[in-house]
Design brief:
Blueprint: H1 7-49, E1 70-81, H2 84-88, E2 92-103, E3 106-117, E4 124-125, E5 135-138, E6 141-156, E7 160-181, E8 184-206, E9 211-226, E10 238-254
Antiparallel strand pairs: 1-2, 1-10, 2-3, 3-6, 4-5, 5-7, 6-7, 7-8, 8-9, 9-10
Amino acid sequence: MRLCLSDNCYFYSLTLSIMYHNFNAICKKLTKTLALTCFTLLIFSSAQAQHHNYSGLSYGGGSNGDGSNWGISILGGYDVPTGDLATTFKAAPTFGISVKHNYGDFTFNANIGYVSYKPKLDTFYYDPTDKTAGYIKYDNFSSLQFYVGAAYNVAIGDQAKFYFGIDLGSYYNYFSYVSNEGLNYDAANSSDEESYFAPKLGINFNVSDNLSLGIEGKYNFLFSSSSGSGDAYDYGYSTTTTKSYSGNLVLTYNF
């Protein structure tokens, strides 16, 4: 371990601790703000939608009034974990449903999703050459996802639109395991909440007046924090970052 005794290094470590300590709170505040914005726009435009007939792409109503004002999407794709999560669990299908609303060149969304990673091996042995040394067995690592987002749309001709934006929210995770180390046997489960942030980009194609089909890619960041003393200023404070990338097909009904 390398010890840093200089004042500059101390203030650098202190700054990082404060940043990590506040990140989850900031992310949750941004999520609430974006959710409130989406809700306000939905209420504001609901009266307008009663007097107009819209058709077109799910992402992007456009400032000229083209495109659907509302959309309901079904998402299906694959999520690939990276880092420490990828050493134990493999890529898994992911599913979700989304409600979307277009406002000018922007689209706001509220999503519920689900993914469940399966372990790469049925049993992980602590010493592959000596199976009597002990083992650990993992159950699926499952996540229920709640998030909101926003995207900016760029028209590509009359039949397609490219978009880029962000999603913010929370993942609620659950997994269990069984371990055996000689005379020590342990069975446990774990559940936790992680703050979620993901930049996204995609493209949508108009299939008919009320249907669009799109492809979306995201790089997912999950953050969780812990501290033995609950004090961000001590050196025991830590923040864990989990990453994955995902690709989805998005089928949207516009109304």
